[in-house]
Amino acid sequence: MSPLVRVVLPVFVAATLLVAGCAKSPKSNDTADKPLGRGGPPPAEVLTIQAARREFSNSLEAVGTALARESVTLTSKSANTISAIKFTEGQRVAAGTVLVELDRAQTAAALTEAQAQLFESKNQLERGRDLSVRQALSRAQLDQLETNVKTAEARVAAARSRLDDTVVRAPFAGTTGLRRVSVGSFVNPGTVITTLDDASTVKLEFNLPQSFLSELVPGLAVEARTEGLGDRVFRGKITTIDSRIDPGTRSIAVRAELPNVDGTLRPGLFMTVSVRGKARSTVVLPEEALVPEQGRNYVFVVADGKAQRKEVKIGGREPGQVAVLAGIDAGDTIIVEGTQRVRNGGKVIAKPRP
Fold first, then answer.
1. What is the sign, positive or negative, of the torsion defined by CA atoms of 78, 81, 87, 91?
2. H/E segment holding residue 234
3. In this structure, what CATH number is given to the domain that contains residue 114?
4. Mind giving me the DSSP string for 282-316?
5. Which of 2, 79, 244, 277 is an S-S bond match for 58, by CB 3.0 to 4.6 Å?
6. Domain for residue 73, yes or no?
7. With contact defined as beta carbons under 8 Å apart, do 275 and 208 qualify?
8. Could you say which of 260, 276, 292 is where a domain stops?
C-alpha cells in the first residue's frame, strides 16, 4: 500500500462515521424536545377561599380644625376709656356677666338731659291739649307738640343705649381668653378687649371626597385624634353637610360635633378624623387576592380545575381586607396564594387555605 493511500483511508472512514452520526441525531432530539407529560406544564398548586358576603362599611381619614361651639371677639362699640375690668383670663362666665366697664360720665349726663327734655315736652303737650279743648290752639300746633314728645322719647332711648354700651357683657356662657386692654386704656370701636369661647362642644370641620357622598348622612359616627393628647380618641357625630361641592378639589365640607365636657379640646386644634360609612352587605376578600394591572384590579376564580381571570370593582378597604363591588359573586372560589404561578385558563390544583 502506497503512503498516499495510508493517509486518505483513515480520513475517509472518519468522515463516514461523522455523517452517520449526524443522520441519527434528529431522531434522538425529537424525544428531548417533547414537553414533560402529555398535557403541557403541570398544574399550579394554589390556595383558595370561598368568597362570602358580610357587613362592610367604607372608612376614610381626613384632617380638620376644631372650632368652638360659639366664639366671639369682644370689642368696644364706641370711643371711650376703660374704667373697670370685671373678669380674669380663662374665667368661666355666665351669659350676661359684666366683663368691662367704660367711663359713663358723659353718657349718663346726656341721658339725664334727654329725660329732662322729654319731661318738658310732655308738660307742653298736656297744656296744649287743655287749650285745644277751649279751641285756643289749632290742630296743627297740637300735632307739633305730640311730635316733640316722640322726638324727646327717641333721644332718651338713644342716650340710654349709649349708656348701656359703656358696659361690655358676655353674650353667652363661655371661657374668656387673654385680656388685651388695661384699666385706663382708651379704646376705639373695634378695639379687641378679649375673646369668649363656648367649647363645651367642639365643632370639627373637614373635607371628604365627592366619591364618599352617597355614604354621608347626618348622625354618622366619627373618631378624632390629635397630637399632644396621646392615643385618646374623641368620638362624635356628623351634624352638617355642606350644600355644595368645591369645584376645585371635588370635595365637600363636613362638620361634626365632639363632646368636650372636661375642656381638653381647644379651638384651633389640628385633628385627624376617621369616618366610617353606612354598613352594607358586600363581598369581602383578602388584599393578597388582588392582581393589579395597568390601573385595574383582577382576581383569579377557580372553575372546573382552571383559573379564570376576572376584573373586579373595588370599594372601601380595611386593614388586610377589601370590598368587591362587582365582578365576582359570593360562593366563588378565589385564589389567594399562588396567583403569580397561574395564567388565565391554566390548570390548577386548588386547596382551601387553612
1. positive
2. strand 234-246
3. 1.10.287.470
4. EEEEEGGG-EEETTEEEEEEEETTEEEEEEEEEEE
5. 277
6. no
7. yes
8. 276
Q: Give me the mean pLDDT over the 291-309 stretch.
A: 89
Burial class (CB in 10 A: 0-12, 13-18, 19+), 273: buried
Q: 108 is in which domain, residue-wise? A: 104-165
The Cα 221–Cα 233 span in angstroms is: 13
**Residue 219 placed within a domain:** yes
Reduced to 3 DSSP states, what percent helix, strand and coil does the chain have, rounded to the nearest 5?
Answer: 25, 45, 30
Crossing angle, helix 105-133 and helix 139-164, to 10 degrees?
160
The 8-class DSSP code of residue 35 comes to: P
Whole-number Å distance between alpha carbons of 318 and 328: 19
Same domain, 271 and 207: yes
Nearest-angstrom CA–CA distance, 120 and 153: 11
- Cα separation, 201 vs 260, in Å, equals 5
pLDDT for position 40: 62
Decide if 128 contacts 145 (C-beta within 8 A). Answer: yes
Share above pLDDT 70 across residues of the chain, in percent, rounded to a whole number: 89
27-36, 165-174, 333-342: the lowest-pLDDT one: 27-36
- Using pLDDT thresholds of 50, 70 and 90, give the confidence band for residue 32: very low
Helices (H), the chain: 3-32, 105-133, 139-164
State yes or no: pLDDT of 295 exceeds 60: yes
Q: Answer yes or no: do 292 and 227 share one domain.
A: no
CATH number for the domain that contains residue 50: 2.40.420.20
Region 294-323: mean pLDDT is: 86
Reported as a pLDDT band with limits 50, 70 and 90, residue 253 is very high
pLDDT at 99 over 80: yes
Number of domains in the chain: 3
Better pLDDT: 249 or 22: 249
* H-assigned helices in 80-138: 105-133
